[in-house]
Amino acid sequence: MGQSLTIKKNYVSAPSAPIQHDRDPVAMLFHWAETRPKSTYLRQPFNGVWREYSWAEVADQVRRMAAALKALGLQPGDAVALTGKNTAHWIMADLAVGMAGGISVGIYPNQASETTRYVLEHSGTKFLFFGPLLDPQQLADGIPDSVKTIGMPYPDLPETDYGWDALIKEHEPLQDWEPNDPDAVHTMIYTSGTTGNPKGVMLTTRSARETMGGVINRLEFRDDERFFSYLPLAHIFERGVVELCSLYVGAEISFMESLDKLASQLAEVAPTRFYGVPVVYGRIQSGILEKLPQKKMDRLLRLPIISGLIRKKVVGGLGLQNARMVVSGAAPMPEAQINWFAKLGVTICQGYGMSENSAYCTTNTPTENRVGSVGRPMPGVEIKIDEATEEVLARSAATMLGYYKNEEKTAETITDGWLHTGDKGRIDKDGYLYITGRIKDAFKTSKGKYVDPAPIEDKLATDGAIDQICLIGSGMKLPVGIVRIDSEDDKAEIAKRLAEKVEALNKTLEPHERVGKLFLTRDEWTVEDGLVTPTMKIKRPQLEDRYRNQVEAMLGHDDKVVWL
Known about the structure:
Elements: E1 6-8, E2 11-13, H1 25-35, E3 40-46, E4 49-54, H2 55-71, E5 79-83, H3 88-99, E6 103-106, H4 113-123, E7 125-130, H5 136-140, E8 148-151, E9 162-163, H6 164-170, E10 185-190, E11 200-204, H7 205-219, E12 226-229, H8 236-249, E13 252-255, H9 262-269, E14 273-276, H10 278-291, H11 294-301, H12 304-318, E15 325-328, H13 335-343, E16 348-352, E17 362-363, E18 376-377, E19 382-385, E20 391-395, E21 402-403, H14 407-413, E22 414-415, E23 418-427, E24 433-438, E25 443-444, E26 450-451, H15 453-460, E27 466-472, E28 480-485, H16 491-506, E29 517-521, H17 540-554, E30 561-563
Parallel strand pairs: 3-13, 5-6, 5-7, 6-10, 7-8, 8-9, 12-13, 14-15, 15-16, 28-29, 29-30
Antiparallel strand pairs: 1-2, 2-19, 3-4, 10-11, 11-21, 16-17, 17-18, 19-20, 20-23, 22-23, 23-24, 25-26, 27-28
Helix pairs in contact: 1-2, 2-3, 2-6, 7-8
């Protein structure tokens, strides 16, 4: 099994691993700038043309921007926010904030202006780095007057107080730098929770070092790694697996220019590691099936020689032919979908983590991949299951200091070093963790019995037409599903397929769990309308509010599957 584990009933822990790079992330930048100064670190596309920044050039700009921030009055411990699409300058700004002694705060580029204002005011942000956005005015409307803005060097930005290029030219590189206190906060990740205002998760430099030490020891990185960055850098998933990993293993990062270029630029970059969330893999799957329908694919994959050519062509077309590890995280991925990709030769490894533990908890690997699980603990991580509630508890050096300005919630979440994840789970005899639902997602039907929606959603979500699904039913006779369809297939054909799936599934469920109806829609569920988080997790209460009136009006419909 590779990594030795201590396994007891409902408890598993992994041994600590020696940290290969016991350094500050900024120090790692300077390490590579000294040892491979001319090698490319960041690749930024402009109108399809790649602008490459070497390690030495990035280090020079970081030093200059750090000097500029200090000259503008930034004090140690001051908060500095960063927003915009993923770019080379997002990374440079983050490193400059760290070098200047500030605390970086990521702002999701497409969140509501009210949420932006809350985060900026709650964190006490002094400066905001402003990058390219689809709707820059929406974010600009949420910036308090007290926050000074610094525009990154990209077109079509609103007017800002300072410009990146001007500040770089005006300041000499900062030289007299010492690493920050490893136990001081270096970043705050504002969780994109499904209810209430986001909470500021305080993470230290030590947690970053501990995380990277374990990642390097477990996941076998090489010296020619290439990453592709497109998930929001404000989220801990992308910050950890792309930005931090790139610094600690010396990897090159290429950024996505725009969503419509995701497929073409991913194929062009052909990364050695690819990270995604389930909705991304769902859309990749839909794209493949549009060109190669399921029945034809199944027939071709049964042919001995042709099957290999088909797999090679599909995987190469996706840009995953060089990927040594393909990871899904941030939300559960249906087991059937993982198996679908496996037939094409793409092994998807699910991992598990939260902002509250630096996204460092468990993972599968290409050599230890148990489909349906989220893997085994990373080095130095302990996992146990609360016998009364089935809640997953985790403990490691990667755990947050707490929630900023929220001692009460911190005390509820961390007990004796154990992080209460809010997820339900189980551990098998070999130490693999399985997430079985969210404690707060369970709802009570009019029959007075609770329904845990996650396992049912997982079994329904195997149809390629389904982009996302949300089971609701509080106070109803039976639960019903709201389904977002991402397919141009005939509506009647989709409804017929899903009706057969519901009928088969209901035979396996308890009477109070059986799905009464599915309601289908092609409406987009977006961050802007508050129906999903920036990492595309469904906001169940908001979706229920959005559709409840329509659903209740159509409950008397004879068909099992109904288009809204």
